[in-house]
Each structure stands twice: as structure tokens, then as C-alpha cells.
Amino acid sequence: MKILLVSDEEDRWLWDYYRPGILKGTDLILSAGDLKAEYLSFLVTVANRPLLYVHGNHDGSYDRSPPEGCECIDDRLVTVNGLRILGLGGSVRYSNGPYQYTERQMERRIRRLQFRLRRAGGVDLVLTHAPVFGCGDGENLTHRGFEAFLPLLDRWKPKYLVHGHVHMRYQPTQSRLQHCGSTTLINCSGKYWLELPDPSGQKSRL
């Protein structure tokens, strides 16, 4: 299963300089937020594969004009080809902008999802916009990660947590990959390819 992970910065090779066939073999696209709606609509069109997204803290325009052909999974648990994906968009509250949350608000969002997580038997991949507190986040409030993610990872032990928000080009020495317990954290700012074994005998549920 080949997954294209995107967030924060539109990749010129996937948009301005797009060449037919460059997304061949892609099974799924996941957006961790803060991308133009037109960009996501373009990707889902040329790839002709599902595109799931969560909101970033700069995605207020999605309320008026959401990306066409794409599926928002904020506060949802979905299964695609046997892969259980949980969506928790937004950043730590630092202003009065949209899709910003206090720690308590994020804790409540996660708590409301516990029944669905138990029913599904857990989660394989958590898609967020903000990073985990203390694991690849920034030192300033704007780019701080959520502490509320730590109990989520400790209890359900997803294989991956995919986030954006912290731009890689501003921190070129920082690794895209971090680890928090048994979970691999992936900063997909720009783009990142994730390849997983295909689960057998599973159907997609969106």
C-alpha cells in the first residue's frame, strides 16, 4: 500500500511541474493540513485515489470552499484497505484563529472517540496537524505539540502518527522521523511517501 503524505507547502513537482504518471501506484493520499483546497482537488483528480484530510490552523477557507472530491476525517475513525486511520486536526491555541484548541479541548475530542476505537480494536495511523508535545515540535507556542496525544499513543499504540505544522525547510537538520514509544512519528511537511504491506481480505470503509 503506497500512501502519499502531504501538508503545509504545495510541492511544485506535484503541481506546477506535474507530469502524467508521477502518482502511478499511489493507493491513498493523506493531508495533514494547511494546503490550498485547489491543490488537494488537483491531487485527488490526477491520482484518482481517495484523499483524506484533517484541518490545519490555516484552513479556515475550507469552510466556504472545501477541497472537491476529498474527505475530511477530523474526529473520525475510518478504515481504508484494512488500515484504521484516526483524524485529529488543528493546532494548539495561540490566537483566535480557526482550528485551534486548548489541551482540554483536545482531550475531550479524543475522549469522544474512545468508543469507536474500542469497537475497531484500535488504530493503525493517527493523522494530525500538530505534532506530539516534546517529539519534533517547536519551542514557541505556535508550533508546540499536544500533550493530549501522549496518552492516546500510550493506550492504543498506533504504528504511525503523521503530522505537519512544523515546516521541514525551517529546521533542515531535524529528522522527519521521530519515535514515541512504539509509534513512529512522521513529519510530512511538503510531501513524504509511506509504503505499507497490503492487508489481505479487507474492504475500505469511508
Supply the CATH class: Alpha Beta
Approximately how much beta-strand content do the residues carry? 25-35%
Number of strands: 13
Which assembly state applies to the chains in this document?
A: single chain
Number of domains: 1
Please sum up the structure shown.
With 206 residues, the protein is an alpha/beta fold.
How are the elements arranged and paired?
Blueprint: E1 2-7, E2 28-31, H1 37-47, E3 51-53, E4 71-72, E5 76-80, E6 83-88, E7 91-92, E8 100-101, H2 103-112, H3 114-120, E9 125-128, H4 149-156, E10 160-163, E11 177-180, E12 183-187, E13 190-195
Parallel strand pairs: 1-2, 2-3, 3-4, 6-9, 7-8, 9-10, 10-12
Antiparallel strand pairs: 1-13, 5-6, 11-12
Structural descriptors:
206 residues, alpha/beta, six-stranded mixed beta sheet, five-stranded mixed beta sheet, 4 helices, 17% helix, 26% strand
Describe this structure in words.
By secondary structure, the chain is α/β, with parallel strands linked by helices. The protein has a single domain, classed as Purple Acid Phosphatase, chain A, domain 2. It has helices at residues 37-47, 103-112, 114-120, 149-156, and strands at 2-7, 28-31, 51-53, 71-72, 76-80, 83-88, 91-92, 100-101, 125-128, 160-163, 177-180, 183-187, 190-195. Strands 5-6-9-10-12-11 form a six-stranded mixed β-sheet, with helices on one face. The chain has a five-stranded mixed β-sheet with strand order 4-3-2-1-13, with helices on one face. Strands 7-8 form a two-stranded parallel ribbon. A hairpin with a 2-residue loop joins strand 11 (177-180) and strand 12. The longest helix is centred in the N-terminal third of the chain and has 11 residues, at 37-47. The protein is globular and about 45 Å long. 39% of the residues are buried.
